[in-house]
Each structure stands twice: as structure tokens, then as C-alpha cells.
Amino acid sequence: MKILLINAPVTVSNHHARLSPPLGLAYIASALMAAGHRVSALDLNVSGLNHSRIAGIIEREHHDIVGVSAMTETITNGLAVAQTIKSVAPETIIVMGGVHPTILPFEVLGEDAVDYIVVGDGERAMVELASALRGDGPELADIAGLGYTMPEAHVNERRPLLHPDDLLPPARGIFPIEFYEEPYNVLTATGSCPYRCPFCSASAVWEGRRNARSTRSVVEELQSLQRNDGVDYVFFSDDIFTLDKTWVYELLEEMKYLDFPMKWGCATRADLVDSNLLHAMAAGGCQGIQYGVESGSQQILDTVKHIKKERVLAAVDAAVAEGIEIACSFMAPFPDDTLETIAETGKFMRELADARANLILNYTCPFPGTFFWDHAEELGLTILPTTWAEYDAKHVVMETRNLSAAQIQSAVETIARDLGLRKTIE
């Protein structure tokens, strides 16, 4: 079958949205290609959202299936793309997947332009669905993670988490690699973070599940990228790279056998590194780490992150001493924030800047599936957006029992101005 995979775009263009190719779609493409299907892709964060162009591609290419991946911020645009496709080729099958359909499956299934949804990882579900539609695959009811509306809306039971060693190498070549700043992002685990931070939807998407890839498999991919593409830098795209320190040490040992040293970056928690590990990571090519810090008020951290400020500062100092570039990310407000606690965040950010950390500051966004979303009323939160596209963490998205939108915006802008932070939206 002929299949087009589309990455739905954000409404307000920003640097992060087009930083790296959509690795999930690249893995799905590989699985479909191995099953004999012809697969192409569009990353609308790179090409831009042009409905006339999309309609022209559909009319010219005559795809059997179009798979659209969307998160909450992009679901509105994803559905608009689906409607455009149906308007020119109503027989084309539309499958929606990604974070938003996984968390709110029946809402997405209720859209007229959507034929199927996929909950969770989509490699096996898309291959089985394509076979079923071709007439030589399983019954729809037997495809785990599939949602459909015949005769009524139904979502099948989720399938066990795919082990990453069973994944085929991602088909990065279907995306315009030259247009990404970090084109070679590498997955080291399926699933996500086992922590259940109240502001994060990862636990709702993956239910706390995580399977680590073998270090040998990771290094084989790095070796292939070196030999076939001349790659000398990758970003490990997992939420918490150093969750298992033993695994990291094993990977560093394996990486010694690459053809030439590989430079790399990652993200993790500041309480999951120590000076010995950071020394080994730096020696093994690590150039940058992002720590999710979130708040500079210990009172707030004790409720949302369970990490000590002293531990964060020590992790920054230890990494900088090894020559690793550090970025620390923060957000505001939290439900119990006051003007005083947000001011504490600004003060701590200044302390980290003095320790030579780069800083990132976003507005807290109560995405569907987060504790903040599910318990907004009891937490005293007023969720402000009227459309999903506004869930972008770049604007004030919620008021709290203590702070109005104007107070939140003023407090955040004061921090940004004092620290010389620049906006990343266009």
C-alpha cells in the first residue's frame, strides 16, 4: 500500500518544533517499509502548513493511508490536515496517532475526518492495520492499541511495550535531514520516564513503562551513522538518559570501539548524576546536558520534583568542571506559587547562571493527562485556553488560586528581562 506519514505542525513557529526529525514516525516508516509498503513523509514544522500544497500532493500521489502524528498543541492543525485530505480524496484512510490521541482517544475518534487512531507506540499497530485494510491481516478487534468507529467508537486494549531492540533502524531519510539543527537524535529506550511529576503527561502516555535498549544495539546504530552519514554528533532523545547509571557506564565502554569519537548530548534529572558519572560521560564525548529543574523555591520543589536545590547546583558545578555545557529548564507557575516563590525561582536561576548554566524558562502548561489537568479544580487552577493550539507553554496557560494571569506574566517577564533571556517563538 502507499502510505504518507505527516507530522502535524505547531501554530506559532518555534525553534524547538523543528529541532530534530520526528523519530517516532521514522520508526513507523521503517516497520511499514519492511512489510512491503511504499512510505513517504511530511514534517509540516519544516515545510510549513500549506493546505493547497497538501491537497495537491494527495491528488497527485493517491495514497491509500495517511498517518498523522499530533500532540495536544498540534492536534487542531492535524485535524485540519485530515479534513483537507478527505475533501480531495474521501476514500483515503486517515489514522491519527501521537500523544493527544493516546490520552484523549474517544475525542479524536469523534472527528469526522478520522477513520482510526493508534494509542501508544505505532510500529506494530500500523503494520497490522495496513495488512488488515489490504485484506491479508488480522481483524480490527485483534489489533492492540487500535481505535475505530465501526459500528461504534471502540479502543482495543493496549499492547505490551515494544522492546527497543526489536525496532528496525529509523528511516530518517524520508525527512529533510539537512533542515534540522540536531538531525541525528537517537532513542535509547522505549516508553518514558518512570517518575510521575504532576506537570508531565509522560506517565499517562506510557503508564510508567520503560524498556532500555541494549548498549550494543545503540552502538551499532552510532557505527552505522558514522560510516554511512559521517555523523559526529547525536542527541540521545530520552527523557532521563542517566536513569540507570550501570547502563550508561556500559554504553560508554562500548562507544570506545566506534571508528572515531562521537560527541553527544542528553537530558536527565540533576539528582541522577554524580561527579564520577559526569567525568566518565565527558571523557566519552558528552558535550551538553539539560537538567529539568522546574522551580527555584524549595517549597515548590518538595511538592512537584522532590529534589534539593543544593543537589542541582552541585550537578551543575560538577558538569561545568568537566567541560560539559549545561542547560537548566524552569517553568512557572505551580499551583502553590506566589509572587515570592516565583521571585525565588528567579534568584536561583541567577545563581545557576553565575555557575555558567544556560537557562530555559517556560510557562507551566496543564496538558491533558497530567495531574494538574485531572485535578485542576481541587488545586485551584483555572485553565485559560479555548483551543488546543494554545497549549504551547509559551504563554500564560493557567491562573492559580494565588496569582492572576497578569501577575504570572509580569513575574515571568521580570525574570526573563533580569536574566537576559530571549523568546524562542516567532
Keywords:
TIM Barrel, 6-stranded parallel β-sheet, Rossmann fold, 2 domains, 17 helices, 7-stranded mixed β-sheet, 426 residues, alpha/beta
Secondary structure layout:
Elements: E1 2-7, H1 23-34, E2 38-43, H2 44-47, H3 51-61, E3 65-69, H4 75-88, E4 93-97, H5 99-103, H6 105-109, E5 116-118, H7 123-134, E6 146-148, E7 154-155, E8 185-186, E9 189-191, H8 202-206, E10 210-212, H9 215-229, E11 233-236, H10 245-255, E12 263-268, H11 275-283, E13 286-294, H12 298-304, H13 309-321, E14 325-332, H14 339-354, E15 358-363, H15 371-374, H16 376-379, E16 382-383, E17 398-399, H17 405-419
Parallel strand pairs: 1-2, 1-3, 3-4, 4-5, 8-11, 11-12, 12-13, 13-14, 14-15
Antiparallel strand pairs: 5-6, 6-7, 9-10, 16-17
Helix pairs in contact: 1-7, 3-4, 9-10, 14-17
Describe it for me?
By secondary structure, this protein is α/β, with parallel strands linked by helices. The chain folds into two domains: about 1-155, Rossmann fold; about 185-420, Aldolase class I (TIM Barrel, Alpha-Beta Barrel), CATH 3.20.20. It has 17 helices and 17 strands. Helix 1 packs across helix 7 (about 125-135), helix 3 crosses helix 4 and helix 14 (about 340-355) runs parallel beside helix 17. The longest helix has 16 residues, at about 340-355. It is globular, with a radius of gyration of 22 Å. The model has no long low-confidence stretch (mean pLDDT about 95).
